[in-house]
Automatic annotation (TrEMBL):
Protein name: Phosphatidate cytidylyltransferase
Intracellular or extracellular location(s): Cell membrane
First-listed, main subcellular location of the protein, grouped into a coarse class: membrane
InterPro entries on file: PC_trans
Length: 270
């Protein structure tokens, strides 16, 4: 199991490195694809994956992505509102076919998965080549990097449970180690970029971004676990051997991506 998890993890990192490095339409297509797959995983739980509300949600997020591709950000909120109206229309005109909880979870999936994962693409395209790539790397350092640090520190020193019912294996000591570890990784990343003459990058700023992102990533991880427990499923899917589905692997990234996108913009202007 460990070998399978390790190999699939390496393959995933290689794929991510390629699509992030290429950016543009390649990254656009990748983010749209994983958003649709992730939404499908969530909709299966709500039993709306192939029904009218789910179809409206898929169409809405495709429209949303193409609005981003065209650079028409002033219409982003309009696409979200149109999607909500379309989902509610299926609820109203087919009543009582769908439960209100299904409808709420369907629209939740549009925001939670589709919109929030789009910030990987938006981060990559937010600056010139190096800056855009750097921001995306910070997203994954703050999520996957902090998760690895939290696991190692928790295994060695973990005594106090952080969320004993929701995630019994996570400890407060591990959480602290994850935040500190992510901050150190951010600082090291900026240092490496500076030494390699890839522009001027603030070591302190990158450390802050990764530290804050790590805190948020824990919320994302626990939120995804809570949804699974509420619906009594172990994994969202089986797409990534040893890891589960897209939501199992990108649960922390979902929360971290928009936070780091806005935080990097805020700190760059200070």
């Amino acid at each position: 199991m460990f070998k399978t998890r390790l190999l699939s993890g390496i393959v995933l990192v290689v794929i991510l490195a390629l699509v992030i490095g290429l950016g543009g339409n390649v990254l656009f297509g990748f983010c749209l694809l994983i958003s649709l797959i992730g939404m499908n995983e969530l909709f299966k739980i709500a039993k709306t994956d192939r029904k009218a509300p789910g179809i409206m949600a898929y169409g809405g997020i495709i429209l949303y992505y193409f609005v981003l591709l065209l650079g028409a950000k002033e219409y982003v909120m309009a696409t979200i509102i149109i999607t909500l109206v379309a989902i509610l229309a299926t609820y109203v005109f087919t009543f009582p076919t769908y439960d209100a909880t299904q409808i709420v979870l369907t629209f939740f999936g549009v925001i939670y998965v589709g919109v929030m994962l789009s910030y990987i693409y938006q981060s990559r395209m937010s600056g010139d080549g190096v800056i855009g790539v750097a921001i995306v790397v910070l997203i994954f350092l703050a999520s996957w990097g902090s998760d690895t640090c939290a696991y190692c520190v928790g295994m060695l020193f973990g005594k106090h449970k952080m969320a004993p019912i929701l995630s019994p294996k996570k400890s407060i000591e591990g959480a602290v180690g994850g935040v500190v570890g992510a901050a150190i990784l951010g600082c090291l990343f900026a240092f490496v970029l500076n030494q390699a003459n890839f522009g001027s990058h603030s070591v302190g700023r990158y450390g802050i971004i990764c530290g804050v992102g790590a805190l948020i990533s824990m919320v994302g991880d626990l939120a995804a676990s809570g949804i699974k427990r509420n619906h009594q499923v172990k994994d969202y899917g089986y797409l990534i051997p040893g890891h589960g589905g897209i939501l199992d692997r990108f649960d922390s990234v979902i929360f971290t991506a928009p936070i780091i996108y806005y935080l990097s913009q805020l700190l760059s202007s200070i």
